[in-house]
Design goal:
By secondary structure, this protein is mainly alpha-helical. Helices cover 43% and strands 0% of the residues. It contains six helices and no strands.
Length: 138
């Protein structure tokens, strides 16, 4: 994750200012524009790695919430901005707001101790799982 933070920092230099007390006055709109520019890993446009990174961060953040751990983006401002900006892109909203994809389907296999059942925490063998038939083609 630290290498990804460095990659984003090098790709979007100056997007996040470390010292807000510098003599140089920067208006809030300018800072907002720079922060919102951190959305993509490759070539300034959406590509497959963006979705992979977003999904990985989403799962790590869920894991942190589940086990009450500090968020992995807390000390990584570029990754935090990337995650926030990518999830707020209008093109991603329909997927991110899909109930089945984010509140019914597990993001780990059924026997994982984390992420295998949204309602009960972990799937128990033989338990009814409302997601089981969602992938069937009729």
């Amino acid at each position: 994750l630290d290498k990804l933070e460095l990659l984003l920092e090098n790709t979007y230099p100056g997007a996040i200012m470390e010292d807000s007390s510098s003599e140089q006055q920067v208006d809030d709109a300018s800072v907002e524009r720079r922060l919102h520019s951190i959305c993509f890993l490759v070539g300034g446009r959406c590509s497959a790695p963006d979705f992979c990174l977003y999904e990985m961060l989403d799962q790590y953040l869920a894991l942190c919430r589940y086990y009450n751990l500090p968020f992995i983006t807390d000390n990584r401002p570029y990754l935090s901005a990337y995650f926030t900006n990518f999830s707020s892109l209008p093109e991603n909203r329909p997927f991110l707001e899909c109930e089945a994809a984010h509140r019914i389907l597990p993001f780990n296999n059924p026997y994982a101790r984390f992420g295998s059942d949204w309602e009960n925490g972990a799937y128990e063998r033989g338990q009814e799982a409302k997601w089981r038939k969602l992938g069937l083609i009729k």
